[in-house]
């Protein structure tokens, strides 16, 4: 469950900037819910996803994620536990450049201290499904943009997180791959995962009708 009430946030110090990056944002997504996150470039989509990924804390308002209220007083241990249950596909992938594709995808499982054989098996199955079975020992720099993006998606889903935040996760993919990824994300919601996908891909949004959060100039102008 995600619930935001009148959340405000901005890049950098509060003084000297005429407007907030995110202003007065209120919405809720139930467990197993799917939302598109739409809006023009610069509207604040990535900023909102980074806030939900706990890379920053709200300046004001209330934010509740998986039953925990995110306030300036929230314990670091509670934040650390929560972060392990929330995955993000960053717009710029953020793969670890010195790790192989398999080790990038295995990272969330190793953080959960899962058995090494199990890690190897799960990573290999997922990467094969993603069409990257033959690239497992490559480094990110040796992959195409779309291959790196599929690696980032695999890393986000491998640990079966409660919340998946995907920032334009299909912009480097061809249509067939984009459909495959969206189908997978929709199937995960049926198993209780909450998913928010920021996109500029109108064709994909039409193909997978779902409620949408519309951002413009940091404000939510529509919820549905
Ligand atoms: N590191 C930063 N420092 C200061 N301002 C920033 C920073 N990153 C983004 N911004 C500003 O915050 C606003 C929202 O940016 P954000 O990246 O969230 O938009 P977006 O909706 O994801 O856009 P896009 O569709 O281009 O990815 C923009 O005005 C942007 O210029
Ligand atoms: Mg963005």
TrEMBL record:
Example GO molecular function: ATP hydrolysis activity
Recorded superkingdom: Bacteria
Gene3D superfamilies according to UniProt: P-loop containing nucleotide triphosphate hydrolases (3.40.50.300)
Domain ABC transporter: 2-221
One GO cellular component, as annotated: plasma membrane
Pfam family, any one: ABC_tran
InterPro entries: AAA+_ATPase, ABC_transporter-like_ATP-bd, ABC_transpr_LolD-like, P-loop_NTPase
SMART domains assigned: AAA
Assigned keywords, A-Z: ATP-binding, Nucleotide-binding
UniProt xrefs under PANTHER family: CELL DIVISION ATP-BINDING PROTEIN FTSE, IMPORT ATP-BINDING PROTEIN
Name of the protein: ATP-binding cassette domain-containing protein
């Amino acid at each position: 469950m995600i619930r935001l009430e009148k959340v405000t946030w901005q890049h950098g110090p509060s003084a000297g900037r005429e407007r907030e990056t995110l202003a007065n944002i209120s919405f809720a997504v139930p467990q197993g819910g799917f939302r598109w996150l739409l809006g023009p470039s610069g509207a604040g989509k990535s900023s909102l996803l980074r806030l939900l990924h706990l890379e920053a804390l709200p300046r004001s308002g209330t934010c509740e994620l998986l039953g925990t209220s995110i306030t300036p007083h929230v314990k670091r241990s509670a934040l650390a536990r929560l972060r392990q249950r929330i995955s993000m596909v960053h717009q710029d992938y953020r793969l670890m450049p010195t790790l192989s594709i398999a080790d990038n995808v295995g990272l969330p499982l190793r953080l959960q201290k899962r058995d090494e054989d199990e890690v190897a098996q799960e990573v290999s199955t997922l990467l094969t499904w993603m069409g990257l079975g033959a690239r497992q020992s490559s480094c990110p720099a040796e992959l195409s943009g779309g291959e790196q993006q599929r690696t980032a998606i695999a890393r986000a889903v491998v640990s079966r997180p409660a919340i998946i935040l995907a920032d334009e996760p299909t912009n480097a993919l061809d249509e067939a791959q984009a459909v495959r990824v969206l189908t997978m994300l929709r199937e995960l919601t049926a198993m209780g995962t909450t998913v928010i996908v920021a996109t500029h891909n109108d064709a994909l949004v039409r193909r997978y009708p779902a409620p949408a959060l519309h951002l413009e100039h940091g404000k939510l102008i529509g919820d549905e």
